[in-house]
Design a protein that fits this description.
CATH topology of the largest domain in chain B: ABC transporter involved in vitamin B12 uptake, BtuC
Helix content of chain A: over 70%
Radius of gyration of chain A: 19 Å
Number of helices of chain B: 13
Shape of chain B: globular
Order of helices and strands of chain B: HHHHHHHHHHHHH
Strand content of chain A: 5-15%
Number of strands of chain B: 0
Oligomer: heterodimer
CATH architecture of the largest domain in chain B: Orthogonal Bundle
Distance between the termini of chain A: 51 Å
């Protein structure tokens, strides 16, 4: 029974990490859906979110709910600028040039922020906006605990998802987004302003990544300018796992990656946790190349 | 013999380059550091040419090229240090072993993942790169010599200008001939249209695997040279960013262009290392702020590579 409780506790920890990955993966999947671009700089937007929140909390003592809004606004703006300055001039260039540009933007953000006059290259502690409390539950002899951090992460992720669903499936803008991702030229012929829709996609994705950054900072209170690299890559893998371009696919993929990472760390060794993701990815891609929820891709 | 006759102009050019470099090094006109960088340029060009075969000519997107470079480096260094054959005579054998190890792994991994296309293949190779990195990080559990996350130390310094130059030029010539051979034609055909290639009877799966294995062999050989040049290996030398480095060189040089890869490799390594020498120490940190900016501007200016203005 103790073993079972331990497994449940690790599962909850895994879901906590997975929820953060899911938030990042959403941005990847939306941008990929529209531009067919692996936006490598997306992980750095996540980092930016954590740092902006750090400054808002520690320097200005802003209450946590305002921090969310302010940080998301900042990251959305940086996502907007990133697209307008770096990606838009390459709209008609080969896709690979766009990918290299994305890597360039990513490196720029990392090293620019690591300058001592901007942020710092060192690890810094993320301030605790509130005390961590644990709530114990017991269900049929199975004991497990939730911390208020976990409750916050699940609640916010769930709310963000619900809002995103409303945006994409119930609003006119969302319909336009889906149209652009389906066929850009035809969408333009129907009077949709492609540029605005692409900007909107980047902004929504960046806002979600910024939110992920704050939650990550609260849950794992150590931040660094290079913190976005691995979560970024893992989240993209999560998006591919779930089926790229599919919203709920990104979420399920993020949760799978998070849970398997934590389970492997807990039962094998934390040094293997990055390796297991590849094994899962390979199996999924070989069985179903378009991902778990992905539609068949016939166009190349 | 025909092989050498057909490329005699290039061989003469290469010999001239070698003599010039030998003279410069011989008279001690440049520091040992610059000598090392020069040799490193050849190694990078060789590895990038491998990626050019895979991606530039055959169209198989790989984001994990550094993994094969690392496999070659670790294999060759490990073989040299456990057998104690750390001398110039056996060095070619360990280089070859590094290349073969990388090629073998490429064959094993290539059979399942080369069924994927485009970005999906890119992500699968990226994932493989992470897996190899994890393996290197834990390699001390297999053998203490490999050093795991502490790094592999105490490798004999065997790579010199002669061997790096000869191996690189020879393999570049082989690559050039392969590209113009029947197989190269198949590869380029697959890049243009895989379905059409299959319909005219090309065994696309086999040809893709062949290009992948050959490209990774080149990376493995380059890795072996690298290991014996810097005498120290660390898992972080073979991470995702190194794969991107090779990709940048291929793109800057222009896809499917060996001469372009040579120029781009020279420029890219020269620029990165040159900044280290030119910039004063107090703004050295700014180096990695300028390099990505340069990359972004280059991509806007020449999206098809430095040597091509526009796609024909």
């Amino acid at each position: 029974m103790e073993q079972a409780s331990y497994i449940v506790a690790q599962l909850i920890n895994g879901l906590q990490l997975g929820a953060v990955y899911a938030l990042i993966a959403l941005g990847y999947t939306m941008v990929y859906g529209i531009l067919r671009l692996i936006n490598f700089a997306h992980g750095d937007i996540f980092m930016l979110g954590a740092f902006v929140a750090y400054f808002l909390i520690s320097r200005f003592g802003m209450p946590i709910y305002l921090v969310f809004f302010a940080t998301m606004a900042v990251t959305a703006l940086s996502g907007y600028l990133m697209e307008k300055i770096a990606y838009k001039p390459l709209r008609n260039a080969p896709k690979i040039s766009l990918l290299i540009t994305a890597v360039g933007v990513s490196l720029f953000l990392e090293y620019f922020c690591s300058l001592r006059s901007i942020f710092t290259p060192d690890y810094i502690g993320f301030p605790r906006p509130f005390e961590v409390e644990a709530y114990n539950f017991s269900l049929g002899g199975l004991e497990f605990a939730f911390t208020n951090v976990q409750v916050l992460i699940f609640a916010i992720t769930f709310a963000a998802l619900a809002l995103l669903y409303l945006l994409i499936y119930k609003t006119k803008q969302g319909k336009a987004m889906r149209a652009v991702s389906y066929d850009q030229e035809t969408a333009a012929l129907m009077g949709i302003n492609i540029d605005n829709i692409i900007s909107l996609t980047f902004m929504v994705g960046a806002a979600l990544a910024g939110m992920g950054g704050i939650l990550y900072g609260i849950a794992y209170p150590q931040i660094n300018v290079f913190m976005g690299i691995m979560p970024g890559i893992k989240s993209f893998i999560a998006a591919v796992l779930g089926g790229i371009g599919v919203i709920h696919g990104a979420v399920i993929g993020g949760l799978i990656v998070g849970v398997s990472e934590v389970i492997v760390s807990a039962f094998l060794s934390s040094t293997y946790r990055d390796g297991v993701i590849f094994v899962i990815l390979l199996i999924v891609l070989l069985v179903k190349p378009s991902g778990i929820f992905g539609k068949r891709i016939d166009k190349v | 013999m025909r092989f050498f006759l057909e490329s005699k102009k290039l061989i003469l050019l290469a010999a001239a380059v070698y003599i010039v470099l030998r003279l410069i090094f011989g008279f001690g006109l440049v520091s040992g550091y610059i000598e090392q960088i020069t040799i490193y340029v050849f190694i990078v060009i060789l590895a990038a040419t491998g990626l050019n075969v895979i991606y530039g000519y055959t169209g198989q997107f790989s984001l994990g090229h550094a993994a094969f470079y690392g496999i070659g480096a670790y294999t060759s260094a490990y073989l040299a240090s456990i057998t104690g054959l750390e001398n110039v005579v056996f060095f070619p054998a360990t280089i070859l072993a590094g290349g073969i190890a990388a090629a073998l792994v490429a064959a094993i991994i290539g059979i399942p993942i080369l069924r994927l296309r485009d970005d999906f293949l890119g992500i699968a190779t990226l994932g493989f790169g992470i897996l190899v990195r994890v393996f290197f990080d834990n390699s001390d559990k297999i053998s203490e010599t490999l050093g795991g996350s502490r790094g592999f130390t105490g490798i004999a310094r065997l790579t010199n200008l002669e061997i790096a130059f000869f191996v690189t030029v020879f393999l570049l010539l082989v690559t050039r001939n392969l590209i113009t051979s029947r197989y190269g034609l198949f590869w380029r055909c697959i890049k243009e249209d895989e379905t059409a290639s299959a319909s005219v009877g090309i065994d696309t799966a086999r040809m893709k695997l062949m290009a992948f294995v050959y490209g990774c062999f080149l990376a493995g050989v380059a890795g072996a040279l690298y290991a014996h040049l810097y005498t120290f290996l660390h898992p972080s030398n073979f991470d995702f960013l190194r794969s991107i480095d090779f990709l940048i060189i291929v793109i800057l040089g222009g896809m499917g262009n060996i001469a372009g890869t040579i120029y781009a490799g020279l420029l890219w390594v020269g620029f990165i290392e040159g900044l280290r020498i030119v910039l004063p120490a107090n703004i050295l940190d700014l180096r990695w702020v300028f390099i990505p900016l340069l990359l972004i501007v280059l991509m806007m200016w020449r999206p098809y590579g430095l040597m091509t203005k526009r796609k024909s």
